[in-house]
Amino acid sequence: xxxxxxxxxxxxxxxxxxxxxxxxxxxxxxxxxxxxxxxxxxxxxxxxxxxxxxxxxxxxxxxxxxxxxxxxxxxxxxxxxxxxxxxxxxxxxxxxxxxxxxxxxxxxxxxxxxxxxxxxxxxxxxxxxxxxxxxxxxxxxxxxxxxxxxxxxxxxxxxxxxxxxxxxxxxxxxxxxxxxxxxxxxxxxxxxxxxxxxxxxxxxxxxxxxxxxxxxxxxxxxxxxxxxxxxxxxxxxxxxxxxxxxxxxxxxxxxxxxxxxxxxxxxxxxxxxxxxxxxxxxxxxxxxxxxxxxxxxxxxxxxxxxxxxxxxxxxxxxxxxxxxxxxxxxxxxxxxxxxxxxxxxxxxxxxxxxxxxxxxxxxxxxxxxxxxxxxxxxxxxxxxxxxxxxxxxxxxxxxxxxxxxxxxxxxxxxxxxxxxxxxxxxxxxxxxxxxxxxxxxxxxxxxxxxxxxxxxxxxxxxxxxxxxxxxxxxxxxxxxxxxxxxxxxxxxxxxxxxxxxxxxxxxxxxxxxxxxxxxxxxxxxxxxxxxxxxxxxxxxxxxxxxxxxxxxxxxxxxxxxxxxxxxxxxxxxxxxxxxxxxxxxxxxxxxxxxxxxxxxxxxxxxxxxxxxxxxxxxxxxxxxxxxxxxxxxxxxxxxxxxxxxxxxxxxxxxxxxxxxxxxxxxxxxxxxxxxxxxxxxxxxxxxxxxxxxxxxxxxxxxxxxxxxxxxxxxxxxxxxxxxxxxxxxxxxxxxxxxxxxxxxx
Length: 745
Known about the structure:
Elements: H1 2-26, H2 31-40, H3 48-155, H4 163-171, H5 179-256, H6 259-262, H7 264-455, H8 457-462, H9 464-546, H10 550-559, H11 569-621, H12 626-720, H13 726-736
Helix pairs in contact: 1-3, 1-13, 3-12, 5-7, 7-9, 9-10, 9-11, 12-13
């Protein structure tokens, strides 16, 4: 309503100004009336003053005519500007209406999204409360379990029991027993069985040592017997050698004489005696060798049994030591694990605090980057507008050329189609002429055949079958001919359609080839410039990378144009690439250090994994009640991992909500930018209105001094003639009646 009233006020002001200007034009003093009034005065002498006065009045009338013309021009300009203003106001009203609709849509969408966000936040709060309650319960259970573990660890220090205590505790049922009592019973059973085994092994060891001593004494006696027999054998061998020498001597003596005949009986007896002794000695030697081998076998068996017994003893001692060591290590590890659990809880609390701090930093950095992003968006939007305007102009020129080419191709196709149509008409006429000739020949043949049939009736009976066969063939040929004509016409139509498609495809392919060639040339030029830039960048980067001092590197860069006031993208890219090269060198150094750290961490991880495998194997071998404690700890770890997964899912949901929020903020910012643009247009309109008001004020100031001149001339005229007294009043009314046009916003 306010805009309509403002328009009506402006129209009233303009109409009033126009009416006042028309009145002023009508009430101007004509020159003929002035001259006639001067002539009526009678015989007044024409003096210099009268001539000057007439000249001044004439000039004044000319100035009034020019002023009326200028007023008309100003009115025309006012009307034009008012029409423009009305159009702009209509556009502004439409824009305001669209803005209101968009604002209403935005408010509705924001309300819906706020409701969704509130619901989601309420659900998140409920889930977080449930998680916190569950975490508190788990912490309380963890505290209780730690206390119970500490009590159990303190109670499991003195586990030794007497036989009476064991019998008393064994008689009780397992439900009534406490954990330390149950552990002490199991420990007593295991230790008691081990002690019994150890006592049995000691008894076996004592018996085996006694047997070993007996076998050692037997071996000593056997070695002594063996040495005695060996001495006897050596003596017998010496005696045998002596006898062989004597035998040789006797043989010599027999050769010398008849000693053989004389001492034959004596030698024979001695020989028999020696042979008997030798056989007995051989028999004894064999018996002694057999007994010696049997004793050596027995000695080897006894030594092997003794070695196995000693090994079993050593193994039992090692097992005992290992079990004691394992017990000590498990107790130490249990203490270490408890300390580690406390440290991990402290680290968890520190991590929570750090997460909160990081979230605050993230919020601050997000706001900062948001402002930067909005600035960059405005700049990029302006660049995109310029680019789109340029591309639209290029597309217009290209589309004009393409339409001209298509018109040319269509004209050529039309000419070709007309020529082909004329050819088809000529071919059709030729076919009709041939068809008429064939009909005439056919009729003549029919007449000839009828005359021949009348003359040769007796032959027709014989050849009726042949004529029927010929008629059938003729019908088939006629059908084939008609079909061939139809197919010929179809093929001609297809050929015409295909030629049209061929020409259209040829024209489209030519346009496409031209576009691709232009694009290829543009890309080739860009690629050449890019390759040159890359070569220059590689050389400069290598020079700057070899320099360790940053000041010298920057001097080299400044020598190649870095930092100069030349607005080229190549130098900007040069700057970016050099900074990137420096960053790359720093990152390579950091990467090498990180690789070393990673290898060290891998070694530590392998060691820890080995220790963990050992601990898991030991834990799998552990019996009650440690097994129960370990299972509870594992269940708690699994629950903690599930809670962590749930927390990660919630964080992902929060990130998605943040993304949605950023998208909504972008929409809101776009709407705000559109509103700012509309407001800027409104400001431009206001500036135009102010310019018009200033122009009208200048014209009004110019009109004022002219009205004063008219008043002075009218007063002088009144002194000379009383009939012209009313004219200045009318002129004053005509001069001061137009009101200035008011522009109400």
